[in-house]
Amino acid sequence: MSLAALIVAAMAPAVLADPAQEARARALDAEIRCVQCENEPIAQSTADIAVDMRRLVRERIAAGDSDAEIRDYFRQRYGDFVLFRPPVDSRTWLLWAAPALLAAFGLMALFGVRRAGAKPGELTPEESER
């Protein structure tokens, strides 16, 4: 066996016996952010803490915890940042509303510039003097 294969095998968490539970674990692994890598889910991260987090997800699933309980556990331990989709609450509403607000401001600015400008084909006094 090659060295790379040994490293991957050592870092891979134990697979759960129940395929449904393993599917849940993989889905949660994709939703939880690695706290060291910051922009990678724990499913893709090779950091030691991500390996521990994947193992913990499987342990909690085997213990009977629901997906929501597992997400809450990681939120309590690492904060909202650990979830790629943080919950909507009083602290995160601006995060969720930002795309719609930016689109609305962009449309208002676009229409405002069009109305403020001269009509197409008309020359301004400065342009007609040239």
Brief overview:
The protein is an all-alpha fold and 130 residues long. 60% of the residues lie in helices and 0% in strands.
Commentary on this structure:
It is a single chain. The protein has helices spanning 3-11, 19-31, 48-62, 67-78, 93-116, 125-129. The protein starts with a helix and ends with a helix. It has two domains: 1-86, Helicase, Ruva Protein, domain 3 (Orthogonal Bundle), CATH 1.10.8.640; 88-130. Helix 2 crosses helix 3. It is built from six helices and no strands. The longest helix is centred in the last third of the chain and has 24 residues, at 93-116. The radius of gyration is 25 Å and the shape is elongated. By secondary structure, the chain is mostly helical.
In the CATH hierarchy, the third-tier topology of the largest domain is known as Helicase, Ruva Protein, domain 3
CATH classification, class level of the largest domain: Mainly Alpha
Shape: elongated
Give the beta-strand count.
0
- Tell me the major beta sheet: none
Distance between the termini: 79 Å
Instruction: Determine the CATH superfamily of the largest domain.
Output: Cytochrome C biogenesis protein
List the secondary-structure elements in sequence, H or E. HHHHHH
Q: Radius of gyration from the CA trace?
A: 25 Å
* Low-confidence runs: none
How many domains? The number is 2
Overall pLDDT level:
81
Structural class based on helices, strands and sheet pairing: mainly alpha
Beta-strand residue fraction: under 5%
How many alpha or pi helices?
6
Q: Any idea what the CATH architecture of the largest domain is?
A: Orthogonal Bundle
Helical residue percent band: 55-70%
